[in-house]
Design a protein that fits this description.
This protein has 268 residues and is of the alpha/beta class. The chain contains 8 helices and 7 strands, in the order βαβαβαβαβαβαααβ.
């Protein structure tokens, strides 16, 4: 079974930074047509340079919490590449919050950004995949795949990450529920749940807290922080026919972190 994604068209959200950027780049380098989507247009332009208006890469800038922006993203993808085969919901935020603060809107913000945006965009793209399949001759195999990015925080409790943990757990359950709902339409839905990956948010945290890196590595059996490219390779597997019989799964990439049980250890 091949892990090739050459010739397929992918939308990758959160593609201006960190893991999202690594996935989008990796897909493009492996022959996929890729739309890099993010709110930060300046960063997208800096990332793609002169590559953004030809070849197999395009960019789309906008706030995907808005339904109209989602529709425009899909339209731009169809205009550029005629179809969409892969959606990677990589746009996510990690925000600390105080569970006892009545002024804290962290949970609402995390659910809006990390759950509802992925849910609504998945619905929109799935409908397009089903429409495309109506004109395909083949009646076997997947017609599309959706990949969500989650966190092991969904299964671990950290005092200041309640909102992020809840949104991650909700995203994992959304993955399972949507997988069952879309299976009759031959659309696969899986999630990648990762531990400490050198993302933009983690890089920022490491600069602020010099002891944080040691804390992470001490609680990770493999003794290091993962590179974003390692998540990108897992995403390619889930997007390819190599995972054709996988759906509703939460793939964990954490260096063994969840094999241990230190409650106070950071979980992202």
């Amino acid at each position: 079974m091949s892990f090739s994604i050459a010739g397929k068209t992918a939308i990758v959200t959160g593609a201006a930074y960190g893991v999202g950027r690594a996935i989008a780049r990796h897909f493009a380098e492996n022959g996929a047509n890729v739309v890099f989507a993010d709110m930060d247009e300046a960063k997208l332009l800096a990332e793609l340079g002169d590559e953004h208006d030809d070849g197999n890469m395009r960019y789309f800038a906008g706030d995907l919490r808005e339904k109209l922006t989602m529709a425009n993203l899909l339209s731009a993808t169809i205009d550029a590449f005629d179809r969409v085969d892969i959606l990677v919901n990589a746009s996510r935020q990690v925000v600390t919050s105080d569970p006892l603060s009545t002024d804290d809107t962290g949970l609402e913000d995390m659910l809006a950004q990390n759950l509802m945006t992925s849910y609504r965009l998945s619905q929109l793209v799935a409908r397009r995949m089903i429409k495309q399949a109506a004109s395909d001759e083949s009646e076997e195999g997947s017609i599309g795949t959706i990949i969500n990015l989650s966190s092991i925080a969904a299964r671990r409790s950290h005092p200041n990450l309640l909102a992020y943990s809840v949104s991650s757990a909700a995203l994992d359950q959304m993955t399972r529920s949507m997988a069952v709902a879309l299976a009759p339409n031959r659309i696969r839905v899986n999630s990648i749940s990762f531990g400490s990956v050198m993302s933009a948010s983690l890089q920022s945290t490491l600069k602020e807290n010099t002891n944080y890196r040691e804390d992470i590595t001490e609680h990770t059996p493999l003794g290091r922080i993962a590179e974003a490219a390692e998540v990108a390779e897992a995403a390619q597997f889930l997007a390819s026919d190599g995972s054709a019989f996988m759906t509703g799964q939460v793939m964990t990439i954490d260096g063994g972190r969840t094999l241990l049980d230190p409650v106070a250890a950071a979980a992202h």
